[in-house]
Design brief:
The protein is α/β, with parallel strands linked by helices. Helices cover 40% and strands 21% of the residues. The protein has a five-stranded parallel sheet, sandwiched between helices. Strands 4-5 form a two-stranded antiparallel ribbon. It is globular and about 50 Å long.
Length: 193
């Protein structure tokens, strides 16, 4: 099994990074081939909304990390995305990446109805925010991130096997045993055939 992990957190030792590292290690120990990418390190130019990728099936902008990440998504059986909450949504760098890859995530038929290009692949979503539980969900903080990612990946055909939302990191920034267990459970769901 090939798994792509996208870490959209700039914090190398933050909760998102710790959670993704647990998932990565568990997947590797169970025989999966894991590719790990830090979104903040990628070089991706913003989409120009020219719409030519819809008919050409490739981006008109010069090659950058967007095409490379799309190739990894295409080759993967599953994707794990970790994204902290920035103003009720995913970090801008992650959104720019997905904007640039739309042509390789979903197509459309002659009636302009979306056609998923990654049907049957699995996804795990991980999000954190400083807003305490349950307000991280009720006020659409981590829930906003998850909703946006489910929209993108859902139209692309991914099946969601686990979602981890951790609120209250401002007052409780520590990574707990409960967090570790959630990550292990998510990894096992991902690896289940």
């Amino acid at each position: 099994m090939k798994i792509l992990i996208l870490n959209a957190s700039p914090r190398p030792t933050g909760n998102i990074s710790q959670m993704l590292n647990i998932i990565k290690q568990e997947c590797e120990e169970n025989g999966a081939e894991v590719f790990y990418e830090k979104v903040c390190k990628l070089q991706v130019k913003p989409c120009m909304a020219c719409m030519k990728c819809r008919s050409n099936h490739e981006c008109v902008l010069p090659q950058d990390d967007a095409q490379r990440i799309l190739a990894l998504i295409t080759a993967a059986d599953a994707i794990v995305i970790g994204a902290p909450c920035y103003w009720g949504n995913m970090p801008g760098q992650l959104k720019v990446l997905f904007d640039r890859m739309v042509y390789g995530m979903m197509g459309e038929n002659k009636l302009a109805i979306p056609v998923p290009m990654h049907k049957g692949k699995k996804a795990v979503l991980v999000s954190t925010c400083s807003t305490m539980w349950p307000f991280n969900i009720l006020a659409n903080q981590t829930r906003g991130v998850v909703k946006a990612l489910k929209e993108i990946l859902g139209w692309s055909g991914f099946k969601f096997v686990a979602t981890i939302e951790k609120g209250g990191t401002f007052n409780h920034p520590e990574f707990t045993e409960k967090d570790r267990k959630k990550c292990l459970k998510a990894a096992h769901k991902l690896l289940k055939s």
